[in-house]
Structures are given as C-alpha cells and as structure tokens.
Amino acid sequence: MVPVLSLWLPILLSAVFVFVVSSIIHMVLAYHRTDFKPVPNEEQVMAALRPFNIPPGDYIMPRAVHPKEMSAPGFQEKLRQGPVALFTVYPNGPFNMGSSLAQWFVYTVVVSLFAAYLTGRAVGPGTEYLDVFRFAGTAAFLGYALALWQSTIWLKRSWSTTLKSTFDGLVYALVTAGTFGWLWPA
Known about the structure:
- There is one protein chain.
- By secondary structure, this protein is mainly alpha-helical.
- It contains seven helices and two strands, in the order ααβαβαααα.
- It has two domains: 4-36 and 95-183, no CATH class; 42-89, no CATH class.
- It has helices spanning 8-27, 42-49, 73-81, 97-122, 129-144, 149-155, 159-183, and strands at 57-61, 85-89.
- The protein is elongated, with a radius of gyration of 21 Å.
- 20% of the residues are buried.
C-alpha cells in the first residue's frame, strides 16, 4: 500500500500534463469544432428569446410540473408542436475562460487524487511500471470518460460528441497512467 500523500508529485504533475494535453486537443486539433450545431435562423431565434431575459441556468421545454402532467393531452400537444429542447443559458457577455480553466484544473487534480488512492491501495512501492499504469489508467478513465455517456443516454447529446470526449478521456487516462508509472515510489 502507498499512502496518497506520498503521491503528491504524480497527482499534481499528471493534472498539469492532462491540462496541457486538453488545451492542445481543444485549441489545435479540430475534431471538437462540430460538437454543437448552429441554430437555423440564429439571429431571429436570439431576437425572439431576448425579451424573456432568461436567467443563466439549465432549462427544458416543454416542462411538466408533475410527472402525471406528462400524459395530459395539453402537454402531449406541446410535445407534438415543439420545439422540444434542453438547453443551458449562459450569462450575457464574453465567456469567462479563466474560471472554467481553473475549475477544469481542479477537476484534473481530483481525478488524479482518486487514481492515486485506488492505485496506492492496489499496489505497493516498487511495483512495475505496467502494473501501476493499468490501475492508474483505469481509475483515470473512469473519472474522465464513463460518466459522459449519461448525457447521451438521458439528455440526448449526440453520440459522436460523447465518443469524441470519451476518446479525450482515454488520452487523459493514458497521460495520467504514464505519469504515475514514471513517478511511482520504489
């Protein structure tokens, strides 16, 4: 067994490496640029929604107040007429990338912390690189990728977007696993 506190270096370095790799994936490689489709007649849709001054948050429409309402003829008619939408409204103005990047870095540290905990419980000091790699990589993949599938199953996010993000999660897991294998205590 290896205590988590003794793994502070691979935890922090793997988080930094994942942060850098994710920046390269999103700023240099083009495969995420198709994750979101433009709304037809975007200008008119934005102009139509603007007077409602919808506060930032997550929304669904139509929305049933109670599950029983979902089977009511009026609600069913709303579904037939559409649009049926699930959407997030951001605050007006430029995106605050600093806050999102800080939260993403904290998330990479948390995933690495859990990978350290699980790997440290499974293998001891001096374990061979590949054994450390397997445990840390599996734990990191669980943290970076598998929960993404829920958004496609329940929220109807496109499978192509989820599979691209799952691939990203695999890359992040491999980076994490390599870092832990490299820096595992003797």
